[in-house]
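debug: dumping io for the single-chain case to check the tokenizer round-trip. Nothing else runs in this session.
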Amino acid sequence: MPKSVTYRDAGVDIDAGTEAVQLMKGYVRSTFNRQVLGDLGSFGGLFEFDKASYKKPVLVSSTDGVGTKIKVAVAAGRFDTIGQDLVNHCVNDILVQGARPLFFLDYVAMGVLEPVRIAQVVKGLAQACREQETVLIGGETAEMPGLYAPGDLDLAGTIVGVVEKEKVINGRGIKPGDLLVGLPSNGLHTNGYSLARKVLLEVKGYGLSERVAPLKESLADALLKPHRCYAGPVLALLDKFPIEGIAHITGGGFTDNIPRVLPEGCQARIERGTWPVPPIFDLIVKAGQVPEEDAARALNMGIGLVLVLRPSKAKGVMSALKKMGEAAYLIGEIVKGEKKTVLV
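debug: decoded output
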């Protein structure tokens, strides 16, 4: 008689999935507020939207991942920061339209489920959600043998936020003469890791535990710094100042991201040398002899968010940011021309 085959024989351990859920429950519930009506484990997340606080609310949503930064996390055996990366990246993506986050959903997949690792990822997700005052309302943990190799991990998330219709930031009012103010990044954030791994780990052969000049920390520490979230300072600015446009400098760098918020006939002119470039970027560019054009497109080069402002508002915005303890740099201006970014 043929031997019976169980789901575990096929590579899926349902008990491991149950254990992962038990380990993450406390982290997830720590993000809940009075608008959450259900509990972890339901088929869908229930969120009671406070429509009385808005005249004409517009929901803003975005989905993203953390790219091959996961490969660095796996190699370093550190999983608590990539969850923070994911939430902060998604919050920034809806922030550019003036939205405040409401709730977040995650998707975590492995070839062979490791509950402790999954729980560490969710711990980071929950930490960032609490910091950004958003709810981790649900998600999916998937075990897919044959699709992912043992030890591999994939991570993605979806965020939903809200903005008053009359306060949506869409860039349509941007015009020549407007100024570009850059808010600094603290490293690569979640983009450019394929280039960084190729140059630093493959071409140069550095180890993640090494402290390579000009870094003052290990390579793992430099590469795994969580993606900065700009919601705190930017939402505070929006209460006082009109902002014409905001660009999140992610995949595509300056080259591709700033034109996403520009109207036709407007060109972004960025002046190199107007902000300090963190040493991790110098290390990658010099070690790999990376062309300037590639660096500007693959890496944020030290600027994580760009605000487009009327000249009459730029000084006040930069002063307000300074009072908040936030650095800001005047990095360029909008000129008449083809809709693109030019670095000079």
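debug: round-trip ok. Residues 14-167 form a domain with the 60s Ribosomal Protein L30; Chain: A; fold (CATH 3.30.1330.10).
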